[in-house]
Amino acid sequence: MATTVPREGQTYVKRLELIWAPRPGLLGWLTTTDHKRIGILYFFTSLLMFGAGGVEALLMRTQLLGPHSHVISPRVYDEMFTMHGITMIFLFVIPMTTGAFGNYLLPLMIGARDMAFPRMNAVSYWIYLCSAIFMYISLAGGHAPNAGWFDYVPLASKRFDPGVNIDFYGFGLIFNSLSSTAAAINFIVTIFKMRAPGMSLNRMPLFCYAFLAASFALLFALPALSLAALFLELDRNLGFHFYDPAHGGSVLLWQNLFWIFGHPEVYIIILPAFGIATSIIPTLTHRRMVLFPLVALAEVMVAFLGFGVWAHHMFTVGLPTSATIYFAAASLIIVIPSAIQLFAWIATILTGKPDFKTPLLFIVGFIIYFILGGLSGITLAAIPFDQQVHDSYYVIAHFHMVIFGAAVFPILGGMYYWFPKVTGRMYSERAGKASFWLTFLGTLVTFFPMHILGLLGMPRRNYTYPAHMGWTLMNFIESIGAYMLAAGLLMIVLNLLISLVFGQETDDPFHGDTLEWSTSSPPAPYNFVVIPTVTTPYGMYDTEDRRRDNKRLARGEGLLDEGHETPMTTAQDADLVEILEMPPHSIWPPVCALLLAGMFAMLLLVHYWIAGAFLVLAGMALLAWHSHEEQA
Amino acid sequence: MSSPELSGGGAQRIARTLGRADPRHSAPSGVWGMALFLCAEVALFGTIIGSYFYLESVDRSWPPHGVEKPEVLLPVLATAYLLLTLLPIHLAARASRRGRRGRTVAAIAVGLAAQCGYLAWQILLFSSDLHKFSPRQSAYGSVYFTMLAVHHAHVLLGLALDLALISQLLAKGLTRYWLIAVRNLALYWYVVGALAVCVLFTQISPSL
Amino acid sequence: MACALLICGCGSPQSMFRSASKQSHDIDLLWWWMLGAAALVFFGALALLGIAWIRRDTPGLPFFGERESVAELMVLAFGIAIPVVALVALFGVSDIYLIGESSPPDPRKTAMTIHVIGHQWWWEVKYPGTGVVTANEIHLPVKTRVNVVVTTVDVIHSLWVPALARKVDTIPGAHNRILFDVGRVGVYRGQCSQYCGLEHADMALKVVVQTRAAYRSWLNGQQRPAPATATPLQAAGRNVFMNSQCASCHTIGGTSARGAIGPNLTHVGSRTSIAADTLANTPANLAAWIRDPQAIKPGVLMPDLGLSKPKVRELTAYLESLR
Questions:
Q1: What percent of chain A has pLDDT over 90?
Q2: HSE-CB for C58 with a 13 A CA cutoff
Q3: Cys staple from C166: which of A16, A302, A417, C102, with CB 3.0 to 4.6 Å?
Q4: Which of A63, A247, A333, A346 should we substitute to test contact with C (largest number of C Cβ atoms within 10 Å)?
């Protein structure tokens, strides 16, 4: 349904092309504030991180292929599972969903020409990149964090971990959380203020609801993590006693703070995946979502309730029984909004005319794994059973079903679904379906037997296991599954890379009816020639809308062609408020991120005064980027 | 409400479009951004204060033996003084809405000077506390000094914002962009004031 | 899955299905019920997806057609009504009723108390009131309610013997407790299940449940000091022990060795395994362990002592004699 610009409109299009022309070459990418380019930067960086985390996982699975093996040493194994967790959660899933998908698609879906704060968007990316490099330098130097991504004290205290390993973790996460906080603020304001005229909240696509909920959860959850890491670094480097019971501190303070962040984090990871699923399903089943408003409400509820369940990670630490019962009840309540969404997806597929193309297949895979992960999650809210299998492979099975099956599958489906949108070319459907089956079966073979291993008593985070425990066969099967899974993922990447060059040219292969499909593929730097106005529910775009837009283009209406302009609207009804002038490009975001990286490096090296100097410089860089005024 | 059509062409276009919508109904996105940033700040302080009371519930002697109970009078006076310094900032925001650059800058400058005094006072209190007990002695000391240090850093950031705004207003004038910045500055200081009261009550809670 | 579980469950010494206590047995039963209900939900949802695939060219539901209200009713029924009922039932059974069994026991209602202390990377076991201290092997009388108090000297560990009870973490500064009340005589394996550093994987223990008479005689044996050396080889080994680093980390009752860092070795010869159930306790294994502990448990706190082969042989003979 892409635009064919009528002849009368060509002059306006040329004008827009001139105004929004990107800078050429590397400098263009370095100084860009275009949400699409930043999205692409996020995509490739987080894909690289996915590869790194995957290699770490494969090393672990190779080590566990048989009992008593010595492929990697216990020291390396510990660093691998720690970096695997950190990488997949902080450096892959969140940047991939909010960074890549959110950045690229959200402004397109709401009919905006950019994010609310384009330079802050850029700085989010550069900080993310710097924090990823920061943490991976530790691995290169052989001092990677080694106390698990959950980093429990006192194992992570100076006494038991005297090296800089944990400091990379502490400072790296504080650094990284700056990026996520900025991104969360940006998304919330973009969703509330930048929607196309007429797209009132009830007409907004579910994708945006999911990102809105996830961003709010990020905003409120991250301070707990940053603070926990700050306390940890104060304990480690200045001899404070937050986590030291010998001096009135508490090791459970760390666990509480970490999980106050950590559990909302699970929903931060999975909500965008829900959003991707609710974009793909209606398009490929040719109908709108069943019970749209209830699903939107459920998405918001999940993010909200996610803050009340953190201690279900702590049922074995000796909390009072009454507290555990409360947290178990809260954990069971959160099942309801999840079940609503689940059956809304199933009902939509059931009552529509599903076209099982690759993206929808991945969504079906997602639904199956979400059910499996959800059901095992319910069993873990049965406290006595949780106390039996906690910290065993059963838990690994559970959260990989949820995080890999239910969060990464929609990401993979989304890659296929929006590939034509981003590149203007079609992927290979046959290879796509084959890659789905390989990935789907690989996931099943890798993670399903872990349930059984857990019930058979195999604890987590063991670098090896004895031969007589009856665990050998399952571990062997899992490792084979991991290789299968890696092959499937590799096939997806290859399919997309090859299609990038050889794929058939296309514009709108799925006939999607959200706004991103109303413009050309790939979209021009200004996204829309004519700022769309939304008159139908659910942000949909039809032939009638197209005819109206073309008429307006012919009359030269709604172009905003006097600068980097985009409309700003009211939060609820999306009535037009004013026309915003957006900043074009800026070198300061990467400079600012680099200076902050300098600060954290100096903190790591215990040069506090130099770190302070870097902070002042970063502040000045922040001031310098206002040399171009945007109307905020 | 119906969605307004955007009308094309010319400079009057924006004026005309603006004329249709009512800007007063909706805060600019810059203010939204600051408000959300402050939400994260509030969550941060909430977590610190939560940690304080959590540690208090774990430790039977709070403050520990050998550490006297926190002083009440001076911190209360200091906080009251901080709340007073919000007045010039508030006046600056009002002057900026009326488009009076000189007054805005002057009011912020007065606020800046007064707040510098506040910070200096607090640093004196902080160092006199440091002579009495150390954050390296007990979890109480750790959380006490960390909470106050984070609060003071928060004030310091406010001072930096004051300074940045004065320089930008003098250099660039009271444009729409910097008008919003003044509004954000005021918002920031209001929240600093509210958090200062929360921190104060946490700080002196063992003496109450 | 159920079949796979049954097949593997029997061959696995640490399986939770080898339950030997009421607590463990009830958790098992809970699991099988949950598995049944979960299977119903899973295959039901799978069937719906199957129908969707079969009817992929026809919009609407079978029988009901394209009536939106039926689809919405379906979401409300499966998404709210049925889960609420099922979850309330699960909550009642597990978190109100069964939780009584996995909650810490009232010490007054138990027959005895033992202390299990986590170390990097082994378990110390103390029997208060008897002076008995052992390592990595808990002996218990059958059909006796035992109050198990777990603590740690370093980091967080977690005591988990799946056949006997839920797990419990050793939290620095806290005294967590669980109940062992074993119904059957036997040997049950357990393992640390909270990541505790390099050798977390090799931090296991055995619970030896005996008849009350056998337990009493074991306890009597453990209360005695270490037996005197009987052969010159053993006496030489004793000298090696007392004059090398060994004695500064290990205790042997009735001798001058009073180290408190490593396991108490007073009756090490009576134990069935060494190095936290990493190796069976045979002279050959013990010798290998003394010669190069880092090769068997990389990172273990016991250093490489650099003892000559004859000295290792003497030391092994001495330690094996400590029964």
A1: 80
A2: 11
A3: C102
A4: A346
